[in-house]
Amino acid sequence: MPRKAGQREGSPFTGLGPVFMKEFSDHLSSARMMVLMLFVIAFGALTVAPSLTELRNVTESDPFLFLRIFTSASSRVPFSFTAALGFTIPLLAIGLGFDSVNGEFNRRTLSRVLSQPIYRDALLLGKFLGALATLAVALVALWLIVLGAGLLLLGLPPRGVEVARGVGFLAVAIAYGGVWLAASMLFSVIFRSTATSALCALGVWLFFLIVWPLVVPTIVVAFASPDMMSGRASIDETLALIQFQSVLDRLSPNTLFGEAVIGLLNPETRTLGPIIQSQMYGAIMGAPLPFGQSLLLIWPQITGLIAGMIVVFAAAYIIFQREEVRA
Amino acid sequence: MSDNVIEARGLLKLYGAQRAVDAIDLDIRRGEIFGLLGPNGAGKTTTILMMLGLTEISGGSVEVLGFNPVRQPLEVKRRVGYLPDAVGFYDHLTARENLIYTARLLAIPRSQIGRRIMEAMESVQLADVVDKRVATYSRGMRQRLGIAEIVMKKAEIAILDEPTSGLDPHATFELLEMIRGLKRMGVAVLLSSHLLDRVQSVCDRVALFSKGRIALMGTVVELANQVLGAGHPILVEASGIDIAAALRGIEGVQKVMPEGPQGSEGGAWRVVADRDVRAAAAQRIVSAGGALTRLADLQPSLEEVYTRYFQEARHAA
What we know:
The complex is a heterodimer.
Chain A: H1 16-29, H2 31-56, H3 65-71, H4 81-97, H5 102-106, H6 110-114, H7 120-154, H8 160-190, H9 194-223, H10 226-230, H11 235-249, H12 253-265, H13 291-322
Helix pairs in contact in A: 1-7, 2-3, 2-4, 2-7, 4-7, 4-8, 4-9, 4-12, 7-8, 8-9, 8-12, 8-13, 9-11, 12-13
Chain B: E1 4-15, E2 18-29, E3 33-37, H1 44-51, E4 59-64, H2 73-79, E5 80-83, H3 95-105, H4 110-123, H5 139-153, E6 157-161, H6 169-184, E7 188-193, H7 196-200, E8 205-210, E9 213-218, H8 220-228, E10 232-239, H9 243-248, E11 253-258, E12 267-273, H10 278-287, E13 291-297, H11 302-316
Parallel strand pairs in B: 3-7, 3-8, 5-6, 6-7
Antiparallel strand pairs in B: 1-2, 1-4, 8-9, 10-12, 10-13, 11-12
């Protein structure tokens, strides 16, 4: 029987602060976080170090040289720092969230904590925010390390607008981590076993990383008309199909993150979809957009990530409210 | 305000079509130790969770200290301490850190936290291990830490779910002492258990649960009178005479039954009378030339009440 809203008394956020502080300090001092951080730093260094050495040799003037640290893939390591983050942030988030609720249940601390004057709302939100804060600390630290390494090795300070774009990138990365954190917490609410919830979260991550990019073209081809195959389709038809493909693509948080990063860190990016000749009229090829315009371009991606995070968290919240606490 | 700290009326919990708790009425009085007894799955824990607002109530009502646990769970949980069955603590933290977390959740002022933790840990004799990680604690120590949490909370009601299960006799004895200690502090204690003989010694009143209903409720003596029949049972063991014949003649004796498998002559006999007939029985046996080997006053045992009651319930069904 659902509890009617407004019937119960007291703030749902009673006790949020202590839960948040405990989760935050637990995560920061845990061995698991150390391992995850080592993993993230190793991946970051692997991608940043070669691209830094290559960027040192760049002689042509590039107004956004600093941002290239994040986005350029060197000839030795075939992916960039941001691509590496797109891969490691979900792992970090899943690692922080997969046992947040069922772990308490299995240690039999859940009913004891819930018998204190606190609603389940505060417990779940406190756990989420605690892990998100941990994630943010880790990402900020990583970002500062890269920035510092860039300063030292390039011997050139970043311009204000580059820092602004970098901070924007940080915010997007945290939101992206939030989506995966919410997803892993959802599984930790659904399943009693921590191994099952970890496997399911990793399964979803692998699905969006590997399977979804392969499935989308197949679906799109299935919807294409015979005209399209023979190349006689109208421009409208082709555009509609491409748009259909990007809609499917953007169901994946990885795509949203990738597009937002491109828009922010490659100021030359004018569009993330198809562009036709007439729209290019008067444009100067390769000219960067102002920061505000770039932000406008990727605004849907950012809201998409945040909305995804909220939807998944809400699902976890609803299931948690109905769960029995007894063993 | 009435003298009852918990009042349940027609309290009902449905899991699908199954009635886990079937419209029970229950009053817990201020300052008493009340035992919820019954086999596993009889609805004891569900009843407790409903009182704490930790599970939905399907019907009826319950009031804890005048608050409704459905609508005012925070008020209830601020005043009620709960020790769940096989309580868990955060193993990687020390006992002190665990209690600090609880204290913060309870919004105890920071300046008081340290003192209240030490007072509580002293009351359960764990003060010397307060800075050890809980991972190093034995099961009995964890249960005591749970009691310490309730003491620190200054709860008005302590609800203990199977507090003695899995403890060795010594740890059980210590824990029951601490439960008596809670009572001395003026805390009403509600405890559930399926270990009857241990609970009998601390409970003022008990309720016997069976299939979601309260089968019997009252003091142990009341229950014994109700189930085993009124009277004062004694145990007589002698040899050399026909005990049954000798004892039946005593005034006030209602029943003489053999205790155990032995035959008519000698052995142990249970005598139920309307008063204490030990003196008369001893005289009879000795004057009849028998050798009296044992004469004992039989306290009504909850175990017996329980077994007999459920046997009869089964026969009736």
